[in-house]
Structures are given as structure tokens and as C-alpha cells.
Design brief:
By secondary structure, the chain is α+β, with helices and mostly antiparallel strands. It has one domain. The protein is 14% helix and 32% strand. It has 2 helices and 6 strands. A 6-stranded antiparallel β-sheet has the order 1-2-3-6-5-4, covered by helices on one side. Strand 2 and strand 3 form a beta hairpin. The N and C termini lie far apart (39 Å). The N terminus is likely disordered. The structure holds zinc ion. Zinc ion binds next to loops. Zinc ion (ZN) binds next to loops.
Length: 120
């Protein structure tokens, strides 16, 4: 039975993006990947970009061995011509995934999470 009342289910494209960005074999990424099935969307950026705030029941997954750097993964985002238009950042705080952020160099924010093929 679902006991958490906070947040909504993670969109499929956010799950794919997190799995892609956290795919390395380091202990950090290994522990963070194990949190993905438990993540909920607990907030959105105040602008129209795709950035989401992540939350989870911390009793369901172990904290990851994070360092002082809250950015645990990042990639550049390319458009269909291969031009860099921005990027994505994954943040963790206290050992748990906390933000999946998109940013752009263009005037308009990135409103959809990029597909793995758009990452560089
Ligand atoms: Zn935003």
C-alpha cells in the first residue's frame, strides 16, 4: 500500500534521464541508482523549465556516499543539429537525490527532459 502522500510519480523521461546520468559503476552512482524507484516529484521550478524537486522516503533506500559537491552528475544537451543548447544537472543532498535540473543558453527554457541521445 502506498503510504506516502507527498508528491507525484516521476515521469518516465525523468527516470530514463536519471538512469542514463547515473550509469557509472562508482559506489556513488550505484547507491543513487537504487533510489530512483522510490523517488517522487515534490516540486517544480517556478519558471516553465523541466526542473523538478525530488523526494523519497529515506527509510526505503540507503544514503549514497556523497562528497561536498552536491552535483552528482551532469551532461550537456544538444539540439537536433548537434549544437549545445544547455545542460542537465543532478543534485543530491544528505546522500539522497534532491534535484533534476535543466538549464539553457537560449532565451526559452528547456521544458522537456532531453532524450539520452541529446546528451553530450
Ligand atoms: Zn526553471
Amino acid at each position: 500500500m502506498e503510504t506516502s502522500t507527498t508528491g507525484g510519480a516521476l515521469p518516465a523521461e525523468a527516470i530514463t534521464l536519471l538512469e542514463t546520468l547515473l550509469a557509472s559503476d562508482t559506489p556513488l552512482h550505484h547507491a543513487l541508482r537504487a533510489q530512483i524507484p522510490h523517488l517522487r516529484v515534490t516540486g517544480h521550478c517556478s519558471c516553465s523549465c523541466a526542473t523538478i524537486v525530488l523526494g523519497l522516503d529515506e527509510t526505503l533506500a540507503a544514503p549514497a556516499p556523497v562528497t561536498d559537491n552536491p552535483v552528482v552528475a551532469e551532461a550537456e544537451v544538444l539540439d537536433s543539429d548537434g549544437q549545445e543548447i544547455g545542460g542537465v544537472l543532478v543534485f543530491a543532498h544528505g546522500g539522497y537525490l534532491s534535484y533534476l535540473e535543466t538549464y539553457t543558453w537560449l532565451d526559452e527554457p528547456i521544458t522537456q527532459f532531453p532524450f539520452p541521445g541529446q546528451l553530450s
